[in-house]
């Protein structure tokens, strides 16, 4: 037995060494951790159980027959994050560039199957050159098997992807099918056809970071949901964020003791400017409602005219959706529609009530938006809110015009509670646009058209640009003092905590298709 154990330890040491010291040093020189160091950062101390450590490839072509690839380039198993079980894989770039071959894929699939069978979150740490070229169609098939499992697990267990190095080709699509993609600046890239891509306008080669780095995917493509300056911050934040999620779609997110908001709710009375043409920072309103330090913003740099994220209110997890008047006046456009719709569906799959803060002048006008499919993308928001069976609450702070009023969780789409601040303006369109249409002739024929126009705008504002017309029709449940917003939401959340629509509607739970 002693000899057998010595042999086991020898083999284990070889596996633990991954691609060797030289390659690990190269990894560190790039500001990257190794696959096993990352698991150490992610998981509770001594909680990792490895599965398939001695697995290796069966490839015989292109010099592979004699090539040992430690753990076949991916470390897989289960562990705990703050005491709660999770299933993980961590690709080892030091072993054949973390490339995905047949056995590598089988190991990931086994972990995905176990995560689904045991209804636990699944976390993938990606650092890979994509399909292992030497293994041909076996490698491609491996990706297909993973994509199918990602899709089957969608909306059943939370799936989180960390992008911690190059993710080339097929390596990008499994993350893209998951709920959240977290990316490190500088060292991580995602690209399908790069890295050597030529700019069609300048004819110059595009730098791989510019093409598919965290900045590009965090702000332009929207592929990355959150970006971080380094891996330490990413894994610390991921551990904290997992506390906002349930383990599966039949579970609720964990509750904690509540904390006071960062902004004194009393100040909420002072944030909306006197002039309807002035903007303000919606983040201040969120900070006056949610528990201090609880806000996890998603897509912070993408479609900045909307804000989405998770937070706690009095210790309970909620999804937050808000217009951001600082950018594009908070209007809805193609990208913000996708951002909002996807977030509402994500919350709905994981039993997270949604709170919507409304201040939007409407849809962004223009040929670009129309031809970009604002009808198709805007419809996703209508669909997502109408479909969602979790508690839905909306607060209209200021402008809520036309289709955008309806889209932002109106009673008509099934809001369980819809309240407004006294500053709310709920109407078919803004006063200027409305008066230009309705009173066109009267204004044109007036002695002083400008004075007449202002008079009509004033009349319209008094009549329609307030919350009381909507409240009198039952479309707004109550008009509230801004400083009471948090308390009102807590009361309503409590009243809705046993909402049964999920079961009463007869709808099946749904996945979280990447919109
Ligand atoms: C086999 C690979 C590999 C791959 C990298 N390696 N990618 N081995 N298959 N796909 C190996 C290298 O040979 C090298 O081995 C080690 O990993 C490190 O790679 P380097 O090139 O030295 O590292 P670096 O300079 O950092 O560049 C990393 C990289 C580059 C940008 C990822 O390796 C690269 O461009 N790889 C190919 C990317 C790609 O086009 N993949 C798409 C595959 S097609 P040694 O032994 O020297 O350490 C695909 C289609 C699936 O995925 C479609 C599904 C929908």
**Count of DSSP strands:** 18
**How many discrete domains?**
3
Strand content: 15-25%
The level of helicity is: 25-40%
Give the overall form. elongated
Radius of gyration of CA atoms, rounded to a whole number: 26 Å
| Poorly predicted runs of 5 or more residues | none
CATH topology of the largest domain: 2-enoyl-CoA Hydratase, Chain A, domain 1
Q: Which structural class best describes the helix and strand composition?
A: alpha/beta
The largest sheet, given as strand count, sense and whether it forms a barrel, is:
8 strands, mixed
Summarize model confidence as the mean pLDDT: 94
Distance separating the two termini: 56 Å
Quickly count the helices: 20
Descriptive notes:
- With 515 residues, this protein is of the alpha/beta class.
- The protein folds into 3 domains: 22-244, 2-enoyl-CoA Hydratase, Chain A, domain 1; 265-427 and 466-495, 2-enoyl-CoA Hydratase, Chain A, domain 1 (Alpha-Beta Complex); 431-464, no CATH class.
- It contains 20 helices and 18 strands.
- The protein has helices at residues 2-16, 21-29, 35-42, 102-117, 136-153, 173-176, 208-212, 214-221, 231-242, 282-287, 334-349, 367-371, 374-387, 402-407, 431-438, 440-445, 449-464, 468-472, 485-495, 501-504; strands at 49-50, 74-81, 84-91, 122-128, 159-168, 180-184, 189-191, 197-198, 205-206, 226-228, 296-298, 306-313, 316-323, 354-360, 392-401, 417-420, 425-427, 478-479.
- The strands form 3 sheets. Strands 1, 2, 3, 4, 5, 6, 7 and 10 form an 8-stranded mixed sheet that branches.
- Helix 11 links the parallel strand 13 (316-323) and strand 14.
- The protein is elongated, with a radius of gyration of 26 Å.
- The site of hexanoyl-coenzyme A has 16 residues, from helix 5 and strand 5.
């Amino acid at each position: 037995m002693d000899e057998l154990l010595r042999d086991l330890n020898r083999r284990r040491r070889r596996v633990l060494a991954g691609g060797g010291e030289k390659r690990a040093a190269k990894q560190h020189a790039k500001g990257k951790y190794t696959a096993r160091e990352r698991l150490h950062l992610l998981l509770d101390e001594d909680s990792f159980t490895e599965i398939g450590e001695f697995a290796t490839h069966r490839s015989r072509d292109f010099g592979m027959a004699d090539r040992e690839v430690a753990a076949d380039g991916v470390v897989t198993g289960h562990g705990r994050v703050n005491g709660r079980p999770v299933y993980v894989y961590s690709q080892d770039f030091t072993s054949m560039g973390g490339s995905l071959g047949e056995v590598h894929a089988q190991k990931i699939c086994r972990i995905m199957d176990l995560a689904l069978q045991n209804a636990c979150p699944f976390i993938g740490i990606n650092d890979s050159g994509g399909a292992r070229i030497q293994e041909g169609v076996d490698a491609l098939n491996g990706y297909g098997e993973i994509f199918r499992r990602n899709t089957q697990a969608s909306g059943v267990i939370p799936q989180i992807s960390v992008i911690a190095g190059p993710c080339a080709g097929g390596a990008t699509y499994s993350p893209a099918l998951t709920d959240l993609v977290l990316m490190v600046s500088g060292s991580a890239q995602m690209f399908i056809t790069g890295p050597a891509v030529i700019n069609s306008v300048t004819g110059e080669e595009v730098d791989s970071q510019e093409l598919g780095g965290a900045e590009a995917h965090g702000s332009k493509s929207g592929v990355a949901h959150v970006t971080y300056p380094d891996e330490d911050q990413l894994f610390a934040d991921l551990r904290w964020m997992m506390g906002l999620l349930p383990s599966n779609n039949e579970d609720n997110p964990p509750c904690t003791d509540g904390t006071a908001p960062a902004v004194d709710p009393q100040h909420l009375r002072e944030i909306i400017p006197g002039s309807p043409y002035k903007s303000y920072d919606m983040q201040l309103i969120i900070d006056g409602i949610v528990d201090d330090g609880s806000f996890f913003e998603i897509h912070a740099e993408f479609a900045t005219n909307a804000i989405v994220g998770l937070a706690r209110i009095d210790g309970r997890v909620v999804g937050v959706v808000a217009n951001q008047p600082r950018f594009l006046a908070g209007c809805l456009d193609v990208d913000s529609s996708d951002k909002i719709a996807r977030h509402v569906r994500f919350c709905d799959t994981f039993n997270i009530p949604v709170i919507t803060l409304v201040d939007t002048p409407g849809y962004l006008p223009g040929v670009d938006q129309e031809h970009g499919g604002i009808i198709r993308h805007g419809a996703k928001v209508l669909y997502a809110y109408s479909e969602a069976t979790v508690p839905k609450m909306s607060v209209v702070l200021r402008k809520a015009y036309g289709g955008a009023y309806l889209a932002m969780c109106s009673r008509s789409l099934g809001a369980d509670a819809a309240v407004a601040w006294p500053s709310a303006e709920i109407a078919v369109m803004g006063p200027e646009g409305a008066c230009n249409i309705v009173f066109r002739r009267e204004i044109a024929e007036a002695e002083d058209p400008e004075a007449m126009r202002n008079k009509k705008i004033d009349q319209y504002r008094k009549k329609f640009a307030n919350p009381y017309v909507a409240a009198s029709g039952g479309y707004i449940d109550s008009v509230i003092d801004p400083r009471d917003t948090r308390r009102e939401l807590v009361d309503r959340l409590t009243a809705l905590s046993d909402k049964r629509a999920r079961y009463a509607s007869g709808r099946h739970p749904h996945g979280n298709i990447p919109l």
